[in-house]
Specification:
two-stranded antiparallel sheet; about 60% helix; mainly alpha
């Protein structure tokens, strides 16, 4: 926000001057006539009436740093997923995420941003006013963030658009062709992500106008990706070895990915305050508490059901907590954030087990259980715990006597789920007419690293394309 006029007149070596009277007393040699005082006050009023939004250096620095944090989340996701797949599919899993970063970065610049945040078209999609970032410059756009450059807001939102489709790669890991993945990520970003982002965050978006609350992406990122993931997993079918013990490539890589995701998530949530302020601090602390709460409850459920806790389980639990607190991180109290995390960790663990063991669905890396269910839990607990004492721009929730936000968030939940499911189904169906979506059985046996990229994750393997990978040593690590 621009500094008050009185502060602009303060000298470097003096305390801030807050009134004309203090100015006169502190500088008696300055002769201020009534006319000059009147002129000063008149100019102040004119300044207040006519000035345009002013860039705040602290806010800009924080949002730009947060954009970098969120960018780091996509490589973090690559490590997180890459550590959980089998040795013969690690490169492909890493590369799907890195390729998504470049691909969506280009699409967002060309047309994605204007579809998501451009002037609304009936509350459903943004117009084409900002194609190729035309009109998106250094001056702030007061509709979205009045104290930072419009470009800063755009690039911050770009990082969200990048990681959203990348999340889905975990559901189709080890069986989707690279060509099909690039096509899917492109179409999904423009046809599913951008419209939902406009509905929820765009000025004039119908869910925004409804009064639903989503601080940093419960609806926009996690639920769209989570429900799309389960549709994609069903349509591609199970892996050949589904149901067998499929050892993870590297637990250490999973922990590293979790650390990078957790670090980046502070930018994801606290950066969504769009300023270096108290709300950013609130979201930062809530993000931490949601993660630790869910990690603890996931480990407790693991210990109860399986007899032993696991490092990978603790990592998944932390990510679930980060997901669940995302929609409410700027609307709920710190104690509520801890409760949300504890609930989400336990519930999502049970769902992940049920998906594979009871329903026999091969969501390879539990994307639906984590992002779909975790995002839904968080989005439906925001209306319970939200408080205007935390964020005046929000609303009071059920525990404070209001049910209005719950109604809005329930409608938004149904709309986002339905749109994501139908959109994903249509995209994969259309893609199947133009390219092979699922790799062949022979390529699946060889692994995507060999069949799609002719690469290996380490020197223990020698590739004879297009045949199977030959194991030279460390046989116990390969599956």
């Amino acid at each position: 926000m621009p500094l008050p006029l009185a502060y602009e007149f303060a000298t470097v070596n003096e305390a801030p001057i807050t009134t004309v009277k203090e100015e006169c007393m502190r500088k008696p040699l300055m002769k201020l006539s009534l006319a000059s005082i009147g002129a000063w006050l008149s100019s102040a009023a004119a300044y207040a009436d006519t000035t345009s939004p002013t860039i705040n250096a602290g806010d800009t620095a924080w949002v730009l740093a947060s954009a970098a944090f969120v960018l780091l989340m996509t490589p973090g996701l690559a490590f997180f997923y890459g550590g959980m797949v089998r040795t013969k599919n690690v490169v492909s899993t890493l590369f799907q995420n890195f390729a998504t970063l470049s691909l969506i970065g280009v699409l967002w610049t060309v047309v994605g941003y204007t579809l998501a945040f451009g002037p609304t078209q009936a509350g459903l999609i943004g117009g084409f006013n900002w194609v190729m970032l035309n009109g998106v410059g250094q001056a702030p756009n007061a509709d979205y963030a009045a104290t930072i450059p419009h470009l800063a807001f755009m690039i911050f939102q770009c990082m969200f658009a990048i990681i959203a489709p990348a999340l889905i790669s975990g559901a189709v890991a080890e069986r989707m062709s690279f060509k099909a993945w690039l096509g899917f990520a492109s179409l999904w970003s423009l046809l599913v992500y951008a419209p939902v982002a406009h509905w929820v965050w765009g000025v004039g978006g119908w869910i925004r106008n409804l009064g639903a609350l989503d601080f940093a992406g419960g609806f926009v990122v996690h639920m769209t990706a989570g429900y799309s993931a389960i549709v994609a997993a069903i349509m591609l079918g199970k892996r050949k070895d589904f149901g067998k013990s499929l050892p993870a490539y590297d637990t250490g890589m999973v922990l590293l990915g979790t650390a990078l995701l957790w670090f980046g998530w502070f930018g994801f949530n606290a950066g969504s305050a769009l300023g270096a302020n108290g709300l950013a601090a609130q979201a930062f602390v809530c993000t931490f508490l949601g993660a630790v709460g869910a990690s603890l409850s996931w480990v407790l459920v693991d210990t109860f059901l399986k007899g032993k806790p696991s490092a990978i389980g603790a990592s998944i639990g932390a990510v679930v907590g980060l997901i669940a607190i995302t929609p409410g991180s700027g609307f709920v109290s710190t104690s509520s954030a801890l409760v949300i995390g504890l609930i989400a960790g336990g519930v999502c663990n049970f769902v992940a087990l049920a998906i594979k063991e009871r329903f026999k669905l091969d969501d390879s890396l539990d994307v639906f259980a984590c992002h779909g269910v975790g995002g839904t839990i968080g989005s439906l607990l925001v209306p319970v715990f939200a408080s205007k004492a935390v964020n005046e721009a929000g609303a009071d929730g059920i525990i404070y006597g209001s049910f209005a936000v719950m109604k809005a968030n329930l409608i938004a939940t149904g709309a986002v789920i339905g749109f994501s499911v139908v959109g994903t189904f249509a995209i994969i169906k259309v893609l199947s007419f133009f390219t092979t979506v699922r790799i062949s059985a022979q390529d699946e046996d060889a692994g995507l690293d060999s069949s799609q990229h002719a690469e290996v994750i380490n020197s223990n393997f020698q590739v004879e394309a297009p045949g199977p990978v030959k194991i030279q040593k460390n046989k116990e690590r390969a599956a």
